[in-house]
Hints:
Elements: H1 5-8, E1 23-25, H2 29-32, E2 33-37, E3 43-45, E4 50-55, E5 61-65, E6 68-79, E7 88-95, E8 103-109, E9 118-124, E10 133-135, E11 146-152, E12 156-161, E13 164-170, E14 186-193, E15 213-228, E16 231-232, H3 254-266, E17 268-271
Antiparallel strand pairs: 1-15, 2-5, 3-4, 4-15, 5-14, 6-11, 6-15, 7-8, 7-14, 8-9, 9-10, 10-17, 11-12, 12-13, 15-16
Amino acid sequence: MSSFSSLCSTALLILALVSSVGISSAGNFNQDFYITWGDGRAKILNNGDLLTLSLDKASGSGFNSQNEYLFGKIDMQIKLVPGNSAGTVTAYYLRSEGSLWDEIDYEFLGNVSGEPYIVHTNVFGQGKGNREQQFYLWFDPTADFHTYSILWNPQRIIFSVDGTPIREFKNHESIGVPFPKNQPMRIHSSLWNADDWATRGGLVKTDWTQAPFTASYRNFNADACVLSSGASSCGSSSPSTSASNAWLSEDLDSASQERLKWVQKNYMIYNYCTDAKRFPQGLPPECTATSES
């Protein structure tokens, strides 16, 4: 693969904007999250500065955010499972409740030692997904922490890694494509065994002699509209008119568009918008109307 150094040799972490209207979280896991499952395999450490998820043959583990968000700019630093992580999946995503849920996904598919992780992304609207794009990364995501970000506003969803956009999903409700904009979502993350499909389509199984597998999280930041008792912390006015809430109308500038093209040219390994065999009745409508294709 080509070197990323020419584009972003010292990638800056995306910093959450300090907002008087939205809620900006400084990232204490004791305050912002709770463990949902794992029977002790998930741990909050260092006075709330670090969270770890572990997986062994008996169980994985997971956590959720205390808050529900309706739009936001959300960052999490993650260090993925090192070594032979084949069969494991580290999932990090936003999701609403109910049968017609919305969801914005990162899933990190483990691999055998020395092989690249696959970053799997997806967007669900009203319970319908099937919008997968997959990428390799231009660095070893197990050697150190890297920032995985979701910008979610009424116009678009942007997935970014260390400040570099890898995917944009635009709002195309005007042509009948559901877009997440009405249902509040919590942050979820889990580490679990998916060796029936995760690595080379399930051909490579989890090596339990390498267990426990551990992923680590730190430096959570959210500049976001928090829903509480049906009311938004951003209010009912037009917070996007405030400079401190510029993320609510943010899009990709020309430099970011070039970086996005660079990532998609060099590191994208699957795009549902080019998979004509999967959609014999025709590609989804957003594929011909947006940069998804």
